[in-house]
Structure formats: C-alpha cells, structure tokens
Amino acid sequence: MSPGVEALLEQARSGLQRLTPHETVAAVRGGALLIDTRTERHRREQGDLPGAIVIDRTVLEWRLDPASPWRIPEATGYDREIVVVCRHGYSSSLAAASLQTLGLRRATDMIGGVQGWISAGLPLSEHPADVRP
C-alpha cells in the first residue's frame, strides 16, 4: 500500500538541499542550471524566469543525463548543479529527487516555485523562454 503523495514528497525532499528564490539567483550566477518544468500555459500566466531552460517534465531525465544521447549541451557532468522549478515547488521536488537517483547528486529545487520567485520580488524575463524539445 502506498504511503501517499505527502509521504512521497517528504521522502523526496529529505535528500534535497532546497534553495530559496534568492539562493537560486546566486546559484545560477555561480553556474547552476535553472530548469523550468512548467507547462506553456503556466509560463504564459506566470511569466518566464531569466536564464531558465524550459524542459518538459516527461523528458527531463533524458535531457539532463550527461550519458544520454538526447541530453542538452549544458548537461556536462554528473557534478553539475541543477535547480528545478515548477509553479509552486512540489513537482520540482519530485523531479530533483529523480535526477539525484540518476546520479546528478547536486540536483535540487526552489522553495515555493515560480510563485515564490514572484513573491520574493525577483524579476521575470523580458526575453522569450529557452525551450528545449
């Protein structure tokens, strides 16, 4: 019997060093990849994050695994810092835990998601999103 989604989320987060929106900005300045898994509709409603690479959740592991033939060029090694974001910071925790299971030990997510970013008063991008198929 499944322990439920809340237990799954708690387990996923227990292995993450989650970042605040301001810590995320600092991590990206230091070279971390900022990965946005939101849908096009949600990005249209909330706006895009500066410097984020948009990757659909259904192909996230394939695009970020350095050993995958379908990886993005920025997926340069298992030691690369990756910060995953979603709308509110729930599915991003599950995604980051999956990336850690894959061997990307520095994968994490941002507390509060894009809504947390907006609440923190951080700027949204003025440029089109960097969407990776």
From TrEMBL:
<dbReference type="InterPro" id="IPR050229">
    <property type="entry name" value="GlpE_sulfurtransferase"/>
</dbReference>
<dbReference type="InterPro" id="IPR036873">
    <property type="entry name" value="Rhodanese-like_dom_sf"/>
</dbReference>
<feature type="domain" description="Rhodanese">
    <location>
        <begin position="28"/>
        <end position="126"/>
    </location>
</feature>
<dbReference type="Pfam" id="PF00581">
    <property type="entry name" value="Rhodanese"/>
</dbReference>
<dbReference type="InterPro" id="IPR001763">
    <property type="entry name" value="Rhodanese-like_dom"/>
</dbReference>
<protein>
    <submittedName>
        <fullName>Rhodanese-like domain-containing protein</fullName>
    </submittedName>
</protein>
